[in-house]
Amino acid sequence: MHLNNNVTEFILLGLTQDPLKKKFVFAIFLVFYLGTLVGNLLIITTIKTSRTLESSPMYFFLFYLSLSDTCFSTSIAPRMIVDALLKTATISFSECIIQVFSLHYFGCLEIFILIIMAADRYVAICKPLHYTTIMNHRVCSILVAVAWVGSCVHSLAQIFLALSLPFCGPNVIDHYLCDLQPLLKLACADTHMVNLLLVSNSGAICTVSFVILMFSYVIILHSLRNHSAEGRRKALSTCVSHIIVVIMFFVPCIFIYTRPATTLSMDKMITVFYTIGTPLFNPLIYTLRNVEVKNAMKKLWSKNLISDDKK
């Protein structure tokens, strides 16, 4: 492991070097990040304060999806926002490694939770009579625990790959975050093997998970033929929102992680889509298309208004 590098810090070029555009980046991504925090924390609070929602496996998983979204966005957005105000944005080697870990940890956690949510919908729609028995609280907790452990294993593999790279200069990363692809370009060694491992790790996780999810939704949608019109409409509404989230998250991920270590001009904008966009849109997709969540939010809001009036 090449822990002794000549490079102690990296310079992040960000989305742009134009001073005027940097101010625009600061303003727009600050709004995006605050929107992500408000949306996801609202879902977390609503689920935790509603007995009906908290006891349902679907919302138990949605709670963890919102939690991983909040952490995923927080591992990237605050530094990106602050860096937009600086003339030269630098990140130390250890901070860079921590960002690689957190980016992959919470990104992978999101992938696993989306798979669990698809499995939950499959059981609910295809085996409704056995749903409460199969998806009991213990099973749900074990599934989430496996997702946390699996994400940790994946992230440690990324860290091992990053630490195996020797850096002796240059130290300029043409990106707004630390990830293995931009780091591979700076390594002063043959990175062919590391890139192969990266594609077989991150690339495989993204692609295989996407195929599993799409296949599971095809089965779910196919089984809806036997349901009543009302049951079909409700199940379809839930599944469509899940499919939108899956496509928004996985398509950019697959584009970034399943190809050789060549950087394209569009890479930064595509990365923005799944690192900043998905955590922002997830709460909107899940709340706007979900009557139960909207009703629980209204109850929470009216409870707070009543308690404020009493004061």
Automatic annotation (TrEMBL):
Family from the record: Belongs to the G-protein coupled receptor 1 family.
Q: Which domain of life is it from?
A: Eukaryota
Protein name in the entry: Olfactory receptor
Looking up SUPFAM superfamilies in the UniProt record yields: Family A G protein-coupled receptor-like (SSF81321)
What PROSITE patterns does its record include? G_PROTEIN_RECEP_F1_1, G_PROTEIN_RECEP_F1_2
What is known about what this protein does? Putative odorant or sperm cell receptor.
Q: Which gene encodes it?
A: LOC132534035
Membrane-topology annotation of the record: Multi-pass membrane protein
Chief place where the protein resides: membrane
- Domain called G-protein coupled receptors family 1 profile: residue spans: 39-286
What Gene3D superfamilies does the entry give?
Answer: Rhodopsin 7-helix transmembrane proteins
Q: Which CDD domains match?
A: 7tmA_OR4A-like
**Pfam families of this UniProt entry?**
7tm_4
User: Matching PANTHER family, A to Z?
Assistant: OLFACTORY RECEPTOR
| Record's keyword terms, sorted | Cell membrane, G-protein coupled receptor, Membrane, Olfaction, Receptor, Sensory transduction, Transducer, Transmembrane, Transmembrane helix
- TM segments? 24-47, 59-77, 97-119, 139-161, 202-224, 236-257, 269-288
What is the native source organism of this protein?
Answer: Erinaceus europaeus (Western European hedgehog)
Location of the protein in the cell: Cell membrane; Membrane
